[in-house]
Design goal:
homodimer, about 425 residues, alpha/beta, six-stranded mixed β-sheet, about 25% strand
Chain lengths: ~425, ~425
């Protein structure tokens, strides 16, 4: 089955809103063996909607549309679809009562705009939206389906997951598609490409490899499709193992693993508590580690010492070290890591101090000079980065390398 | 001038990579009065590239393409463009020497793949890429332009900003388009829509308003185009002022202001130092505040007390409070905020404690129960949130509301 994802909204075309819905939908479809052939973002205009829809239906069996619903959008998607499918809008008591009920929770009553929202295309299949007022709308044309959902991400996800997925699953006859991802960090894509060349050259024609680099990490994605699902799986799993053998020290995980999920798993497995001490990353490492549910089982906390005073007072970095070597130095970051172990009462801590930019450079220390240390009080590891990206990318890159250093530290000492 | 943005890459179509390039480019183009009529993400396939390009050239004057370059992509974009523009690839000594020089920095030599990368379409205008090996390629067809850039965001941004923008600026005859944005927080879009209805109903036909809601914030964007630039500006500025008069307490800024940039500006203007104490947000507030360059002028640091032990030891929350009211309570979060003022030595601090989910709920405190407090040691403000989103959205929403509470606190007490 082939699918096309369409996002409707002027706010996307002027760059004020980043479309994250399409990537989420694409991933869901890929997991269900549906091939996304195209994604389009178009304006809130009737003609654009109808043209894109009509082109889409000639190339694909399924069209997923997000956005362009709701009173402030003048419900343009609903109106365009109604016209395209040659039906009409009729007042839907059920939808109206649900709007009324939802508003009552907040002590409010439906407005005229809410009343307009309750008009639905005749013959459409309404898909329940637990989290908002606009239901999903599923149109069918011969064997093809067009699903319109609100643009609010969590409402869209709810409708797709709970109301649409069961319908789609029933329609699919499971053709064999298979993916595996190898997660690496610490080396660029062309070096990896060279080191695994013997494996990639020998891949069967139905298996493809993709290199997906991002801030110090490279994901290697093996994917393919074949009538014989078992043969496909064997080919891809064998290639995966052969690649890992070529670059064992670069591989930190597989598939949906992230640096932070692997750190969590390792710390929990070894019964270690963990903390951070952050200067230039400003809490980003801590925020990344705690974005995973369950992280409180190993992660204890952090001292974000943006000022030198806090480095001294809360982390116990000596005034002498700060004066002699500066806040951005190996010496300071080591004392920060050791101090974090003591003050936070954790087994292990990673610390970061550097110049994220664009300001703050000195003669000896240009923007992008960043020191990272990991310590357990007895042993330590240190790494110096020299980055040349923007402030926010320097922070994200440093966050990746700090977690990677923690993983290397655990590997060596535990 | 009309433009189309095309992103090439299978990794986007399977949802493994989120396309942020298109939104960035769209914003840049919008600022230059170029209208983006469509964005498309397509696969690494020659036929798709040629078809999308050819359709694009019939609807727009400018096509911006990102991705599909580099050795691991088999330089598919370059090959497809070369064929489409009926030219040929020739070895480019200048490009090759640059690759050689860049690699030499890391003590490496060009591979065969790098040599292939140095073949360029005959007659193309190469646009300098300071940050990578692949230059931008600008093709011209009659009055239309097609620009191909690498998919790596910072390389793409460099080429666009430094090498392409001057060319584009020369080509544009500045037609009048004008945008203003009102930043609001604390109320939903339909309530705002009702409160400003009298203003929006009276807008001239050439001025549009868009409501852009996101996690407790709603941006109101006024935009329009008109031959008379002065009249356009007056109409939009007047509408903006009239809207602000209707909802003064909800407006926290304009245009590119963010909650964190406004907090920074206010603290610096009043000479206040600031810190945070975070439990369930895990450092996200601190990370957001420090993502702005210059934040060290007011922001001092944070204590991330994920564990109760750190709440006690580092923030001075009393064991009795934790026992009687629990970590997720008004009492605890107030002591956290006061403790942060003392321990971090700051004038003002915001503190957060709650259950971000999906685990951690108790009978009295469901997932999404989150307490926020702001204190300067003498005065305080408190707010209780009851959220029902996913973990990461709960964290982002809470971060917005914590910064908003800090702004309200500053307004009241300074």
């Amino acid at each position: 089955m082939k699918a096309i994802i369409i996002t409707i909204g002027d706010e996307i075309l002027i760059g004020q809103v980043l479309d994250t819905n399409s990537a989420w939908l694409a991933e869901q479809l890929q997991l269900m063996n549906v091939e996304v052939v195209r994604m389009s973002s178009i304006s809130d205009e009737h003609n654009d909607i109808v043209k894109t829809l009509s082109e889409g239906l000639s190339d694909a069996d399924l069209i997923l549309i997000t956005g362009g619903l709701g009173p402030t959008k003048d419900d343009i998607t609903k109106k365009s679809l109604t016209e395209y499918f040659e039906t009409e809008l009729v007042f839907d008591q059920e939808v109206y009562l649900r709007i009324e009920k939802l508003l009552a929770k907040f002590g409010r009553k439906p407005t005229e705009a809410h009343r307009d929202q309750a008009y639905m295309p005749l013959g459409v299949l309404k898909l329940h939206n637990e989290l908002g007022t606009a239901p999903g709308m599923l149109f069918k044309k011969e064997e093809k389906m067009v699903l319109s959902m609100p643009g609010v991400p969590y409402e869209m996800k709810y409708i797709f997951h709970n109301s649409f997925k069961p319908i789609l699953e029933e329609k699919l006859n499971h053709k064999s598609i298979y993916h595996r991802t190898i997660q690496t960090a610490g080396m660029g894509e062309s070096v990896i490409a060279e080191r695994i060349e013997m494996v990639t050259d020998a891949l069967p024609s139905y298996v493809k490899i993709a290199f997906l680099p991002s801030l110090g990490k490279v994901r290697l994605r093996l994917s393919g499709s074949h009538e014989d699902g078992k043969q496909l799986k064997t080919s891809i799993d064998n290639a995966l193992n052969a690649i890992v053998e070529k670059i064992p020290e670069l591989v930190f995980g597989f598939d949906n693993d992230s640096l932070e999920s692997v750190l969590m798993d390792k710390c929990i497995a070894k019964g270690l508590s963990f903390g951070t001490a952050e200067s230039c990353t400003g809490g980003n490492i801590s925020a990344r580690l705690t974005k995973i549910s369950g992280s409180s089982a190993y992660y204890q906390g952090s001292i974000i010492s943006y000022s030198n005073k806090i480095k001294e007072k809360q982390l116990g970095v000596s005034a002498d070290t700060l004066k002699r070597f500066g806040a951005v130095s190996k010496e300071t970051v080591l004392e920060m890591a050791k101090g974090a172990c003591v003050r936070l009462g954790v087994d292990c801590a990673v610390a970061v101090s550097g110049i994220a930019g664009p300001g703050g450079a000195t003669k000896d220390k240009p923007v992008g000079t960043i020191h990272i240390a990991c310590s357990n009080g007895k042993h330590h590891m240190h790494r110096l980065l020299s980055l040349s990206k923007t402030r926010s990318l320097n922070i994200e890159y440093t966050t990746n390398m700090a977690i990677l250093l923690a993983l290397k530290f655990l590997e060596k000492h535990y």
